[in-house]
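// run 5 | inverse folding | seed 20
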């Protein structure tokens, strides 16, 4: 997968993709991540990426031109109908569709070229959304000061699901949400830590019993903190 990130804060991304699974996936050429400074795509002398909103109101709005120029350079076109198959242009915005594990999986399975537009200020000129954007994505019901942290979250959620990105294929299958439930609790050495014991069932080697316990614990946790997941699972 190739990922191109458009941002006015390229420095924001300087080291975040240099650790752990994402670093490994980049080194193994499972994913290539390019960060583009939107200012490089401006044409005016002050290199302005934003301007005041028509109709008045607070804040500044991202101008369409630098974003169109960047997408045209990266994808060879700025007409959505002419994008190569398996190409998606995502605008990170609190107005977007909420990101879920299934959405991340769909991107990991289907997308080869991913362009991420990090919005800022009051928003992005609507013509960007109309002409360029295939998906608007929100990472949650709260407002960040920009799309950059959301882009990092989206990249992480997708890249770890790419084939061979994780050490073992089963680790992603057992993730929270993959089966509609939160993950079960995990324990490692020592068995007795400051008087707190590892549950007996995990020490016995009875795999059927361990599976049963894990499923029960996952259900219990989901019931306690995310009842909405259970209601969805049963409807
Ligand atoms: N930009 C600002 N807030 C955001 C959010 N919740 N998700 C995605 N992009 C954003």
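// decoded
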């Amino acid at each position: 997968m190739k990922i191109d990130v458009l941002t006015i804060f390229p420095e924001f991304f300087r080291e975040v993709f240099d650790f752990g699974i994402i670093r490994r996936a980049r080194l193994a050429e499972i994913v290539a991540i390019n960060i583009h400074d939107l200012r490089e795509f401006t044409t005016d002398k002050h290199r302005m990426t934003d301007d005041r909103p028509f109709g008045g109101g607070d804040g500044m709005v991202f101008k369409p031109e630098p974003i169109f120029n960047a997408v045209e350079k990266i994808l060879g076109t700025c007409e959505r109908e002419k994008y190569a198959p398996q190409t998606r242009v995502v605008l990170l915005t609190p107005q977007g569709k909420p990101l879920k594990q299934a959405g991340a999986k769909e991107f990991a399975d289907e997308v080869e070229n991913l362009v991420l537009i990090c919005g800022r200020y009051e928003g992005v000129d609507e013509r960007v959304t109309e002409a360029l954007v295939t998906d608007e994505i929100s990472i949650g019901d709260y407002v960040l000061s920009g799309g950059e942290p959301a882009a990092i979250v989206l990249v992480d959620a997708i890249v770890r699901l790419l084939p061979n990105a994780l050490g073992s294929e089963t680790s992603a299958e057992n993730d929270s949400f993959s089966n509609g439930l939160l993950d079960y609790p995990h324990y490692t050495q020592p068995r007795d830590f400051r008087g707190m014991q590892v549950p007996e069932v995990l020490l016995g080697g009875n795999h059927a019993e361990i599976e049963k316990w894990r499923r029960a614990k996952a259900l219990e946790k989901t019931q306690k903190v995310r009842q909405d997941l259970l209601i969805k699972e049963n409807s």
